[in-house]
Amino acid sequence: MVTAHDDGLVRCGWAGTTPDYVAYHDDEWGRPVHGDDRVFERITLEAFQSGLSWLTILRKRDNFRKAFAGFSIPAVAAFGEDDMARLLADAGIVRNRAKIEAAVANARAALEVPGGLSALVWKYAEEPGRVPATPADVPARTPGSTALAKDLKKHGFRFVGPTTAYALMQAIGLVNDHVADCHVREAVTALRRV
């Protein structure tokens, strides 16, 4: 399903009409993201989203950035017990101990990834395949996301199962799952060629 909006543009059905989703869909989702800290941010946010609405995370993203030192890998890796207590008391983020501990553990793991986190993740960029006509054509996981999750876990990452890994791949441009009629599909395709 695609949605035609008041502005006359057709978008993927999940974008709905919520301004936060529309902006995220049009300006971010599927566009290539590189750089260790930026990829770490997306991994962390996808992990926090697990079991929740993405809109919840999107609306708290600025709070997450403040709470997690702008997602600087070295800064988060250095978090200790005082930081843990601070994060658990921060109503501006999702206060889930296991996810917070995973974020810190993942930062520490990211410091040890040979060649960097961004390079590791981007090894799993998929060649363009069949263009999804509807959201029903978009998988929840793929062999590539299963392999990425396995590789991240091998490096010590947590909360990175195949479904979360696929959501990451979609979000940062390793795949382009904008449906065929979506107005940003071609722009995202062009960015992936660069």
Return residue spans where pLDDT drops below 50 for at least 5 consecutive residues: none
Looking at the structure, what is the overall shape?
Answer: globular
Radius of gyration: 17 Å
Distance between the termini: 29 Å
Which strand order spans the largest sheet, edge to edge or round the barrel?
1-2
Strand content: under 5%
What value does the average pLDDT take? 94
Number of strands: 2
Class computed from helices, strands and strand pairing? mainly alpha
Please give the largest β-sheet: 2 strands, antiparallel
- The total count of helices amounts to 10
Estimate percent helicity: 40-55%
Order of H and E elements = EEHHHHHHHHHH
Structural notes for this entry:
With 194 residues, this protein is mainly alpha-helical. It contains 10 helices and 2 strands, in the order ββαααααααααα. The longest helix has 15 residues, at 97-111. It is globular and about 50 Å long.
Topology:
Elements lengths: L1 E3 L5 E3 L6 H9 L8 H14 L4 H14 L5 H5 L3 H8 L8 H15 L5 H6 L20 H12 L7 H10 L13 H9 L1
Antiparallel strand pairs: 1-2
InterPro entries: Adenine_glyco, DNA-3mA_glycosylase, DNA_glycosylase, Tag
Protein name: DNA-3-methyladenine glycosylase I
Task: Give a short overview.
The protein is mainly α and 194 residues long.
Features:
globular; 53% helix; 2 strands; two-stranded antiparallel ribbon; mainly alpha; 194 residues; 10 helices
